[in-house]
Structure formats: structure tokens, C-alpha cells
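pinging the channel bc i need a second pair of eyes. not urgent but kinda urgent?? the chain im working w is below, pasted from the shared doc
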Amino acid sequence: MDFNFTEEQEMVRDGLSRLVREEYGTETRREVIASEAGWRPEIWAQLAELGILGMPFSEEDGGFGGGAIDAMVVMQEFGKGLVVEPFVPTVVCAGGFLKHAGTTAQKEEHIGGIVDGSRVFAFAYAEPRGRYDYADLETSARKDGAGYVLNGHKAVVICAPWASHLIVTARTSGERRDAQGISVFVIDKSAAGVVTRDYPTFDGRQASEVYFENVTLGAEALIGEEGAALPLIEQVTDEAIAALCAEACGAMKVANDITLEYSKQRKQFGVPIGKFQVLQHRMVDMYTEYEQSVSMTYLATLRLDASERERKLAASAAKVRVGQAAHKVGEEAIQIHGGNGMTDEYAIGHYFKRLTLFDSEFGNVDHHMKRHIALSAG
């Protein structure tokens, strides 16, 4: 199998690498995440101008004919700079729902805005008591004539403070945890009855608790078939998992490089700590974890177009392996840096925070281990 990237993908990688180096230095990022906005709309606009936001969409949908591999290339570079701009919620998640199940009118209304950067989406799926079960929903969308009335609470909605629109999962029929009766809606965040409570996350991003209080939705807000959205949600979240794994790989690559460089400069007993064999072994282990993560990310990305079972197996396997590696690399990097690693001034602490929080997105290691075992047994 040919694992080489195309000339266009290499050009995108080089361009993004340069952009991240120039615009996402440690000091600059620290100032951005501490600012009132918490992100840079001008960078988002620049990504749109470069065609990055339109890469994964087909030309028919107004994009540039790319796919999951292109998104993987983008996310690896974003991971290297700990980029906070909402590529996964907007392009991968919202774009995924629209690509796979959106009507022609929905695609025309929203995808163009994603591609040109004028529309930012957040994916509101998690609930306080739902854990990682996408079917465990208390948020409801009650039928009201041709439309719906939405009520409920979504927790830790990443990038929601910046969003103009939300993709929301809700129960339209059945009982809590039923696989049937789940639907997906696209909502203007400024709609009457949408209330948000914004806060920063541990890794420097922004999130919201989102409350829906008798939000009136038209029939055009429904994406896909009413009550049959669970397979669609699983497909889109598997695509998001592959993209986040790529981001984690980029972050691990830099964490390893920073730690190696630190080991050459930091001295104990008059010699660089990198001379100590025990630390050399630990850094080799960190590099091995990174390389295995890259391989599993490639596999998960390539299997996104495979059968449903193969896609799920590959996504869960990657989430487990990359999650374990992210924990290992982050922990070892901090320990090798010692107390310096936990200070805000040292870049490694920021990489540790992002790698730590990676495990909680779209299912942690334990959840995906169980999912993989269940799929393998079936």
C-alpha cells in the first residue's frame, strides 16, 4: 500500500507548518487563550483564504475535492502548534453531518459558509449523565406541527462560545438510551431560547454549557431521517476521532522534540541529563509510542470508507492506542522536565494539558476498549 502523500497534500502540509510556526509560538498562543475572545478570527479567515476549510468537501458541495486524509494532514500540523481554532467541530463534525445526510438546501445554506469561514459550528452531543453513550439523551425535540420544540441541556460543548450555529442531538421518540428515536438538528445559536454559559477548558480552548428552553425549530432544521440518526452520529464521531488522533500525533511529535532538546541542555552532576541511560530509554519509549500512534491514525483514517464494522473497529483501536500513548508521552515529558514542566512559561506543560484532555473526547480509552471488544466478539 502506498502511504505517500500527494504533491498537493505535501504543499498543504508545508504551508500549514509555516503558518503554525509563524503564528503559534508559545508566547503568542498563551496571550491568545488568555484574551477575552480566546481565539483569533483572523487566523480562521486566513485558513479559509488558503482553502483549508474547504479541503474535505467535494467540488459539488463547494469544496476542493479532498477527504479524510486531507483532514488528517491538517490536524497533524494543528496539533504541533496546539491550534485552538474550531476545525474539528466545524469542518469535520458539522461538515460531516451535512455531507452525509444534509439536503441540497442545507448544503447550499451552510457548507459555503463553512468554506469561506463565515459560519462556525459547535457539536452539542454530550449530556451530564450520558457518559459516552450517544443514545443516552435527555434532550428532547417534541413534534409541533411541521416543526419541533427543543428542550434540554448539553455539556462541555467545545468551541460553542465562538459558534454561530450548533449541531444538536435530541430524542424525538422512544425511551432514554433507545437506539431508535434519535435525531440531529442544525440550529442558529442566536435563536430564542438558546442559553449558554461559557468557560475555558483545561487545555486552553473554550466550551459552553448549552441550555435549550422551548426552542422552536422548523422542519428544515432536521438533518437526515427523523429518529434514525444514531448510525450517522457514530459515523461522524468516528471521523472526528481519526482527526483528533492526528492532532494528538502532532502534539506528541513536538512534545518529544521539546523533551529531547531539554535533555541536551539541562545538566545534573555537571553533565546533560540526556547522557543518563535511564532517560535515554524513556525517551526511546516516548518515540515508539508516537510512531505506533501515527500508524494507528493512518489505519483509522483509511478505514473511514470501509464497512461500518471495520470503521468502528479501526476508530476504537486508534482511540485506545493513541489515548494510551498521549498519556505516556505527556507524563514522561513532564517528569523529565521536572518542576519546570508544570510552569506556564514552559511549552511542554501546554502540550501535556492537550494530550491529557484528548482522552476524554468522543470516548476515553476504557470506553473504546469495551467497544472494540464488543465489536470483535460480534
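so The mean pLDDT is 94. and The longest helix spans residues 230-265. — does that match what u expected or am i reading it wrong
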